[in-house]
Amino acid sequence: MFERPKTGERAVLVHVDIGVKPDPDELEEFQELSASAGALPVALVMGSRKSPDPRLYIGRGKVEEVQEEIAAEGAELVIFNHPLSPSQERNLEREFKCRVVDRTGLILDIFAQRARSFEGKLQVELAQLRHMSTRLVRGWTHLERQKGGIGLRGPGETQLETDRRLLNNRIAQIRRRLEKVDSQREQGRKARNKAEVPTVSLVGYTNAGKSTLFNNITDSGVYAEDQLFATLDPTLRRVDLEGEGGMVLADTVGFISNLPHELVAAFKSTLQETAEATLLLHVIDAASHQRAVCIHEVNDVLGQIGANEVTQIEIYNKIDLMEGDGPRVECGEDGLVRRVWLSAKTGEGVGLLLEALAEFFYLEHVHKVLYLQPADGRLRARLFQTGKILSEQVTDDGGWELEVQMPRKEYERLLQQETEFESRLIA
């Protein structure tokens, strides 16, 4: 929805540590975000404060330092690695005489460039409009007066009120369209559940290697680059597991620290795939010094979308960048797989991951043989509805001998609800 120049914009980057020690990894991530948006950083202004200035976020001295850099480098843009209030953004633009973009606006701009699908573009536009709605006054201060004069007398709206009304109308229109897309996704999820096809969702911090792993497992051509937010539109592919049928693998958008709430809300329907997945593969950059922080940030977002209760297997990726680390599987005290160390780029350890997935889904199902009496027709119908009947033989007395495979949760539910079920088990 915004026109952007074909070449990068000359930008002054501003990073201030508020009440904490300087973190070089955080600064590096900020520079990568700026580069991903297409900015051309020409200067970096750093500082520290106990608390943000309520009017300018930074102090007067830093404002003058930024002004000097703008004049010296001919910068057209100032990017802050912090969320700014509408008034702070407006005041800073008056001081700098150029555009000011905060961390939220920067991430939204990257998403706007990456969106390819119809749904993705709608979701990004919705997030942008929500962010913009609090900043309308900045663009219309010169028109805050009642309409008047010949041909202009109307309902008495100011230009600001008119623009806010049009913005709200567009937001409502996008929401209606996204509701239709969401209903289509819901139909797809119901169809997979009915066919008993489990969904495995790749989640993780941005640039952890999710798309590279996805391409390695599915032999797909999903766009994968060493840059932040290379993937925006979710992709689903079917993967066959040896001896356990198939599953659907979903590649999702990466998370980041201080992920804008507008994006979490706008991408709710897309992230629903993650919340309703059977299993999450949490991809982690094992070579990153900040991997503990990244794990915490991802789990925090998963909690926001209601996916923190879904079973996780941690995938420690990029072992090719670490000395002395080879592919391996780590299990918990219960014997279940908890971590897999691999390299999605070289393929080392991907086979171990597929074996772990096959084992996981094997343990998630039970295989039983039952003898049902002729009077057990209702129980037989329920088994056909909830389980996979591997074989059925009619006995001499008119009953049935069934070999059935079913999800472990359904098996436990049958034991509780059907009093005669346990007595019908043979093996």
From TrEMBL:
- Transmembrane stretches in the record are none
UniProt: Mg(2+) binding residues: S211, T231
Swiss-Prot/TrEMBL keywords: Coiled coil, Cytoplasm, GTP-binding, Magnesium, Metal-binding, Nucleotide-binding
Tell me where on the tree of life, at the top rank, the source sits.
Bacteria
List the SUPFAM superfamilies.
EF-G C-terminal domain-like (SSF54980), P-loop containing nucleoside triphosphate hydrolases (SSF52540)
Binding site residues for GTP: 204-211, 229-233, 251-254, 317-320, 343-345
GO CC, sorted alphabetically, is: cytoplasm
Pfam families noted in UniProt: GTP-bdg_M (PF16360), GTP-bdg_N (PF13167), MMR_HSR1 (PF01926)
Q: Which InterPro entries match?
A: EFG_III/V, G_HFLX_dom, GTP-bd, GTP-bd_M, GTPase_HflX, GTPase_HflX_N, GTPase_HflX_N_sf, P-loop_NTPase
Q: What is its main location?
A: cytoplasm
- Chain coiled-coil ranges: 157-184
Q: Which locations, inside or outside the cell, does it occupy?
A: Cytoplasm
- Signal peptide from the UniProt entry: none
Cofactor(s) this protein requires: Mg(2+)
Q: Where is the Hflx-type G domain?
A: 198-365
Q: Name one GO molecular function term.
A: metal ion binding
What's the subunit arrangement here?
Monomer. Associates with the 50S ribosomal subunit.
Say what the protein does: GTPase that associates with the 50S ribosomal subunit and may have a role during protein synthesis or ribosome biogenesis.
Family, similarity comment? Belongs to the TRAFAC class OBG-HflX-like GTPase superfamily. HflX GTPase family.
PANTHER family referenced in this protein's UniProt entry, alphabetically: GTP-BINDING PROTEIN 6-RELATED, GTP-BINDING PROTEIN HFLX
Output this protein's name.
Answer: GTPase HflX
Source organism (scientific name)? Solemya velesiana gill symbiont
